[in-house]
Amino acid sequence: MSTTVVFYFLKQSDSDGKLRLACNLANTAFNRGHKVYLNASSSEMCDVLDNLLWTFAPNSFVPHIIYDRNKPVDLERFPVVIGHSQPSDQFNDVMISLHQNVVEYAQQFQRVIEPVGSTDEDVAIAQKKISHYTTLLGTEPTKHFL
Question: With pLDDT > 90 as the criterion, what percentage of the chain qualifies?
C-alpha cells in the first residue's frame, strides 16, 4: 500500500484555526465514508478535539471516540477516533496528523492529512515535514492553500 500525503495551509487563522481545520477535514472524510484517526500531539489535545468536534460547525455531527488501546473500537459506530499514540493495525484509512514531526506509523495509512496553521512556526514545521515525507515516500506531498 502506498501512502498519499496532503497538506492544507491556512492563510489566516485564529488561535485554534488548525484544530478547527482538522475537525472540518475529519468531518469531510467521514461524510465521504472514510474511517479517520485524528492524531493529536497529547492527551490534552485529544480532550480539546473531542469538545471541538461537537461545536466546530452548526448542524454537524461527527461520531467519534477517544482511543483506548485496551478497548476494541467499532469503526462503523465511531468512524472518527481521536488518539495521541500509534493505533492498532485496525486503523489504515485516513490519518489527520497534528504532531510536530512525521510519525513513524504514517505509512500505516492510505492517506495522511496535515493541517497547517498560518504562523511562521507552523509553516516552518510543515516545510520540514514535507521534506521528510518526500524522502520517506519518494514523492512530494500535495499542497492546498485555504
Answer: 75
pLDDT band at 97 (very low <50, low <70, confident <90, very high): very high
Q: How many domains does the chain have?
A: 1
Cβ atoms of residues 23 and 52 within 8 Å: yes
- Kindly state the helix (H) or strand (E) to which residue 12 belongs, with its residue range: none
d(CA 81, CA 145): 26
| DSSP label of 109 | S
Which of 76, 101, 91, 89 lies closest to 36 in space, CA to CA?
91
Residue that the C-alpha cell 495551509 belongs to: 9
Q: Which domain holds residue 34?
A: 4-145
Residues 2 and 108: beta-carbon distance below 8 Å:
no
CATH for 92 = 3.40.50.10110
Q: Evaluate whether 57 touches 39 at the Cβ level (below 8 Å).
A: no
Say yes or no to pLDDT of 72 above 90: no
* Chain centre to alpha carbon of residue 62: 14
